[in-house]
């Protein structure tokens, strides 16, 4: 008797529960979505139905329709978010997603499709904040679909199209952190299509600004792996990170360590050389004069070693010569600062001239290598012609200085230096 009574109670309860959904079913099926919403809200407030999976399915379906209807979505601006929150709660009520798979297909298509289309329209109009808002929501829906295998292809981890649109919109909206997170999600898949290369550049630049060394090193390694042909570019990013986030002493030490291995490439030497030749101004200003000279010498060393690996690159030799020339010129300024005939001043000038002779010789050696290589190149780029003109100007200045220093001291040297001076002076402004 008790069993029969219990069965009757359960049957009655089941019929009663089913009846609770009659009204929302009717309104939904007849397109009266606002009335359906009122019924859903009642179900969500009723202790007997508020925790049931079926209630959440109805909320997902009805609220997604509010979002889909252009006449209602402005009236209920949170409808899509409410629907998605209901979706996430529903999963906890029915982990196998039986009802969702049976009754929620249209709602899922609406949440994904409408947000994507709205995002794309805003993207085309360059309304980046609106585009990001829509694509970011679409990405959440896509991740839910992929995680639960709700599309015809089963489970997936990343929707590259949506993630890329979201990242690009975020980038243009000035939301760098949001863009970086999504670009990194793409980079983790080691995508090597050339059109995706810019995402690696963005990540490396972002991590440099954030001083995030662990992330920077991770994505630098991936960039080098998937785009090995752009090693020089990745070296520049690496040097830029070091320049912005470490001291010059550390960079110089790293250069010397790598140089000692004998494995530095031409690009590697040039990356270091350019960093030392054009250091961060704030860091360079902290160096005393002796340290600045040492930095120029290190830059010259790197340029020279790059030239030794590629002696067709006249600009490498030219830059080496210019760095020595700059040190020579600074010494010349010091020389003229010691005017007067006192023994101390004379001794100081003699000391400076001796030092100048060494740098003048090194500058001449490398400028002449640069002159030979650049002049032999045909055709030359405009920058190479400009460098060639500067090269002969510097050489003329150096030989004139050496000639004048030998006047009345060594006639043979005087004549030899004058001949060189006349030659290079005759080359000035010759290269256009």
Break the fold down into its secondary structure elements and pairings.
Elements: H1 2-20, H2 22-29, H3 33-45, H4 53-68, H5 70-73, H6 79-93, H7 98-103, H8 105-124, H9 128-148, H10 160-172, H11 176-187, H12 197-210, H13 213-226, H14 231-245, H15 248-261, H16 266-277, H17 281-284, H18 289-309, H19 314-337, H20 343-376, H21 382-406, H22 411-425
Helix pairs in contact: 2-3, 3-4, 4-6, 4-8, 8-9, 9-10, 10-11, 11-12, 12-13, 12-14, 13-14, 14-16, 16-18, 18-19, 19-20, 19-21, 20-21, 21-22
What does this structure look like?
The chain is mostly helical. The protein has a domain of 64 residues. The radius of gyration is 37 Å and the shape is rod-shaped. The N terminus is likely disordered.
What's this, in brief?
The chain has 432 residues and is mainly α.
Nearest-integer average pLDDT: 92
The profile of the biggest β sheet is: none
Which structural class is indicated by helix and strand composition?
mainly alpha
- H/E element string? HHHHHHHHHHHHHHHHHHHHHH
Oligomer: single chain
- Characterize the overall form: rod-shaped
Which ranges are low-confidence, i.e. pLDDT below 50, for 5 or more consecutive residues? 1-17
Keywords: Signal
Protein name: Tetratricopeptide repeat protein
Organism: Panacibacter ginsenosidivorans
Signal peptide: 1-23
């Amino acid at each position: 008797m008790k069993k029969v009574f219990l069965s009757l109670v359960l049957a009655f309860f089941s019929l009663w529960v089913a009846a609770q959904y009659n009204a929302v079913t009717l309104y939904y099926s007849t397109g009266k979505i606002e009335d359906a919403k009122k019924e859903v809200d009642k179900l969500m407030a009723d202790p007997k139905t508020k925790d049931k999976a079926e209630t959440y399915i109805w909320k997902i379906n009805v609220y997604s329709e509010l979002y889909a209807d252009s006449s209602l979505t402005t009236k209920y601006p949170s409808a899509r978010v409410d629907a998605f929150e209901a979706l996430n709660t529903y999963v906890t009520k029915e982990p196998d997603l039986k009802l969702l798979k049976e009754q929620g297909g249209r709602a899922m298509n609406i949440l994904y499709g409408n947000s994507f289309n709205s995002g794309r329209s805003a993207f085309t109009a360059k309304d980046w904040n609106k585009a990001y808002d829509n694509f970011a929501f679409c990405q959440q829906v896509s991740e839910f679909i992929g995680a639960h295998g709700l599309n015809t292809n089963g489970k997936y981890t990343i929707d590259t199209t949506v993630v890329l649109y979201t990242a690009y919109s975020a980038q243009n909206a000035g939301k760098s952190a949001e863009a970086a997170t999504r670009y990194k999600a793409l980079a983790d898949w080691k995508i090597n299509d050339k059109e995706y290369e810019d995402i690696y550049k963005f990540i490396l630049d972002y991590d440099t600004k954030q001083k995030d060394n662990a992330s920077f090193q991770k994505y630098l390694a991936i960039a080098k792996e998937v785009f090995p042909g752009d090693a020089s570019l990745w070296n520049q990013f690496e040097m830029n990170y070091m320049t912005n986030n470490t001291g010059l002493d550390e960079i110089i030490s790293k250069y010397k360590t790598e140089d000692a291995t004998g494995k530095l490439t031409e690009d590697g030497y040039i990356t270091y050389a350019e960093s030392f030749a054009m250091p961060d101004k704030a860091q360079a200003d902290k160096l005393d004069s002796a340290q600045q000279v040492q930095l120029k010498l290190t830059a010259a060393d790197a340029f020279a070693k790059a030239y030794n690996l590629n002696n067709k690159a006249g600009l490498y030799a030219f830059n080496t010569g210019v760095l020595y020339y700059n040190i020579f010129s600074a010494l010349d300024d010091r020389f003229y600062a010691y005017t007067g005939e006192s023994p101390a001043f004379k001794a100081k000038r003699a000391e400076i001239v001796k030092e100048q002779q060494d740098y003048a010789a090194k500058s001449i050696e490398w400028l002449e290598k640069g002159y030979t290589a650049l002049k032999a190149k045909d055709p030359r780029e405009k920058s190479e012609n400009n460098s060639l003109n500067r090269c002969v100007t510097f050489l003329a200045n150096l030989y004139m200085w050496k000639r004048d220093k030998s006047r009345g001291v060594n006639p043979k040297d005087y004549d030899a230096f004058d001949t060189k001076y006349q030659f290079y002076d005759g080359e000035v402004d010759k290269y256009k």
